User: Fold this.
Amino acid sequence: MGWCPGNSGAGFSCTAELTSGTSLQAAGSGAEFYVGDIAGGDVSPPDFTAATDAEIRSGLPSWGSEIEVVHASFV
Assistant:
């Protein structure tokens, strides 16, 4: 398994090497990458061996979590 980004005059691409010799490739004329701080992201994650599914979900960030973007890169 691995990740291989590429950048050329034609645009940006990335290939994810998956299991069993399969891969997934995405390509486009550009890409945007963001680094950010998510409230509560520095807190230790829940104990996955003892917590219930609901406790684990409530203790982790989700797509709805607010984020403060601290760096952005545009290719």
